[in-house]
Amino acid sequence: MSGSGQVIFLNGTSSSGKSSIAEELLHVLDRPYYHLSVDVINGLRSRQRSLELSPAELDATLRRMRAGFHATVAAMARAGNDLVVDYVLSERWRLPDLLRALAGLDVLFVGVRCPAAELARRERARGDRAVGQAASQLAQVHAHGCYDLEVDTSAQTPAECARAIAEFLPGWRRPGAFGRLREAGATPAP
After folding, report:
1. N or C of the chain: less Cβ packing under 10 Å?
2. Would residue 189 count as lying in a domain?
């Protein structure tokens, strides 16, 4: 789409290193990119009001926020902004919704891999995540099995991953993994 921005979409479990790679990418890419993370949007939510919600109400609130994030990514790119997005495709409906929202945009889909043992070590070191959360996300996060490029943060530093992505980008063939997934007919789960 002419005039639209480039989207580099980093998908991996929590604690896999997506945000660190995104920050490094901002330094090595050849033009200005914005780093968009669902964590930033979630951080804007009123924590006190959220405590007053039932589990079902909180789930509905978070689902709306995530759907809004998808629309925000699309709107920013359609306005001509280049983006690095870090996200966790940990629910079945998220990828089909993103495929719909980002239709017609250039999306380089990058899988951020990290073994379960290393994820648990990072969760313990961070102290702000439940140990085992990331490992429990592994099967769903990468279930679609289709990326343009994959990096392994247990074998490469965030800077090395960012350089690999930046070096891959000029030779990347569109429509890429997002296009193949869309053509395969991915549909939202109930």
Report:
1. C
2. no
pLDDT in tens, 87-120: 999 999 999 999 999 999 999 999 999 998 888 8
d(CA 78, CA 176): 18
Condensed to tens digits (0 to 9), the pLDDT of residues 5-15 reads 999 999 999 88
CATH number, domain containing residue 62? 3.40.50.300
Q: What does the block give as tokens for 58?
A: 């909180």
Neighbours of 46 (CB within 10 A): 8
Whole-number Å distance between alpha carbons of 22 and 34: 9
- The whole-angstrom separation of Cα 117 and Cα 31 is 36
Classify residue 188: in a domain, yes or no.
no
Backbone angles phi, psi at 85, to 5 degrees: -110, 130
Extract the tokens encoding 158: 């965030």
The SS3 assignment for 62 reads helix
111 — phi, psi (to 5°)? Answer: -85, 125
Count of structural domains within the chain: 1
Name the DSSP letter for residue 10. E
Query: How far, in Å, CA of 82 to CA of 13, rounded?
Result: 23
Domain hosting residue 135, numbered range: 6-183
In the numeric block, the tokens 């313990």 are attached to 124
Assess if residue 21 is contained within a domain.
yes
- DSSP class of residue 170 equals G
